[in-house]
């Protein structure tokens, strides 16, 4: 092992222990918001599903999937850029350089939001008939697309995580499910219409973005970072590779819709809106069961970035092993819960009309458990400065997923999409593991 990576085993264990403990503490704060938010999401999902009925809820699910897919593809994971480049300037006390990084990421967020809004609105008008929407539903979807203008909040998220204020980040993010629930109740009390529920979703996005920015701005003031427009000229010189890093993390995050929104859209296109709505409920329940791990993944990235700064790959590996053991146990518990009470959960949330998606729910839960076993590999590659490796692994797995999806969905119906997810998740974890081991060997 080269001297820059060498460290006594005891030191590696101590650093890994400390990093993993901090990540768990921060994950508790994140899960406090995300976990409670997941529970609230099941409440407002139940209201919408049981009010609209199977067919109209399917249209609702398709409109959300369409908008979220575009927002994710166009948007940048700017919080990762804030942490990777801002951490060094913060440690050096270089406030001007830190402000330039924040100005750069804010510009990315604003441009992405504007482009996503225009693209979603025009795309809805063009694709509405293909997805089985009526003319009125297509118009509603086009108006809803404009709400994507408010959906990019990577920079304030990055600011709060940079200053290790995961508690404030959790409270701020909790605005989203709370305002969605309040808006859903208001829409239900008014007329319980498709348009009313989508308006509630759009208003919730705006409210959450405002709260995130107000909270982040208060932390900047508390840390002595002055307000005002930053100087963007020279930001690339002060931060070598920042544009490449931002683009690569954007491309990696753009793969997300292939796994989340594309199956809903594919089920709706090939089979119909009702099946798409059922698939959405199965996915939503599965997501709620894995929220603890999502929170841990977000908390691990800053800790891995700090370990990477010390060039301690062995400590990163130890953190990954401990995280994998924990998340695998969570995944197995989720499978057991769904196997025992899955039909009851579906009946509770969607009503008896949605029990038909139980097999899909079970397969998707198994797929999530497989994915959870290697969830820390992608943040580790990004923290080690190789988001391109994560991109290649995710990209290859996503290509395989699209192939599996096209074949199995046509052959088996909606459950084929779930089996495609399981197969592709296994491929993704394997490819990420291979990429990490190769990078680790190269750095050793």
Number of strands: 0
For the record, the count of structural domains works out to 1
Low-confidence stretches: 1-11
Helix content: over 70%
Mean pLDDT: 83
SSE pattern = HHHHHHHHHHHHHHHHHH
Q: Give the DSSP E fraction (strand runs of 2 or more residues).
A: under 5%
Describe the structure.
Helix 1 packs across helix 14 and helix 6 (166-173) packs antiparallel against helix 8 (194-222). Helices cover 84% and strands 0% of the residues. The protein is globular, with a radius of gyration of 22 Å. It is mainly alpha-helical. The protein contains 18 helices and no strands. It has helices at residues 9-74, 78-92, 95-127, 135-145, 154-162, 166-173, 175-190, 194-222, 235-238, 242-254, 256-270, 273-289, 291-309, 313-350, 358-372, 377-383, 387-412, 414-443.
Overview in brief:
The chain crosses the membrane at residues 27-47, 53-76, 195-214, 319-340, 360-384, 391-411, 417-436. The protein has 444 residues and is mostly helical.
Provide the descriptors you would attach to this structure in a database record.
444 residues, mainly alpha, globular, disordered N terminus
């Amino acid at each position: 092992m080269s001297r820059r990576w060498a460290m006594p085993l005891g030191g590696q264990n101590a650093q890994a222990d400390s990093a993993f403990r901090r990540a768990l503490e921060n994950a508790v704060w994140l899960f406090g918001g995300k976990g409670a938010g997941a529970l609230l999401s099941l409440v407002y999902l139940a209201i919408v599903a049981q009010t609209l009925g199977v067919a109209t809820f399917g249209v609702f699910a398709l409109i959300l999937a369409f908008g979220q897919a575009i927002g994710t593809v166009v948007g940048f994971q700017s919080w990762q850029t804030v942490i990777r480049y801002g951490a060094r300037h913060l440690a050096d006390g270089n406030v001007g350089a830190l402000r330039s990084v924040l100005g750069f990421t804010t510009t990315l967020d604003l441009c992405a939001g504007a482009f996503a809004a225009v693209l979603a609105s025009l795309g809805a008008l063009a694709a509405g008939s293909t997805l089985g929407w009526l003319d009125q539903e297509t118009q509603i979807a086009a108006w809803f697309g404009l709400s994507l203008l408010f959906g990019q909040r990577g920079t304030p998220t990055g600011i709060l995580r940079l200053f290790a204020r995961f508690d404030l980040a959790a409270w701020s993010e909790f605005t989203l499910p709370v305002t969605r629930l309040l808006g859903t109740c208001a829409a239900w009390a008014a007329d319980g219409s498709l348009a009313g529920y989508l308006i509630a979703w759009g208003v919730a996005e705006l409210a959450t973005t405002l709260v995130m920015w107000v909270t982040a701005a208060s932390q900047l003031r508390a840390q002595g970072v002055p307000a005002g427009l930053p100087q963007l000229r020279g930001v690339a010189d002060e931060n070598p590779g920042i544009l490449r890093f931002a683009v690569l993390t954007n491309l990696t995050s753009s793969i997300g819709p292939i796994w989340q929104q594309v199956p809903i859209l594919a089920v709706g296109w090939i089979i119909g809106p009702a099946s798409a709505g059922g698939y959405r409920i199965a996915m939503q329940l599965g997501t709620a069961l894995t929220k603890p791990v999502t929170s841990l993944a977000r908390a691990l990235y800053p800790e891995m970035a700090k370990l990477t700064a010390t060039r301690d790959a062995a400590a990163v590996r130890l953190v990954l092993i401990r995280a994998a053991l924990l998340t695998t146990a969570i995944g197995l518990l989720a499978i057991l819960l769904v196997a025992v009470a899955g039909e009851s959960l579906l009946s509770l949330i969607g009503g008896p009309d949605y029990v038909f998606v139980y097999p899909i729910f079970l397969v998707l839960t198994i797929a999530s458990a497989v994915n959870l076993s290697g969830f820390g590999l992608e943040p580790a590659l990004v923290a080690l400065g190789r988001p391109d490796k994560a991109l290649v692994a995710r990209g290859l797995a996503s290509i395989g997923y699209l192939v599996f999806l096209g074949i199995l969905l046509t052959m088996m119906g909606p459950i084929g999409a779930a089996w495609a997810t399981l197969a592709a998740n296994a491929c993704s974890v394997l490819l990420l593991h291979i990429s990490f081991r190769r990078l680790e060997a190269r750095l050793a």
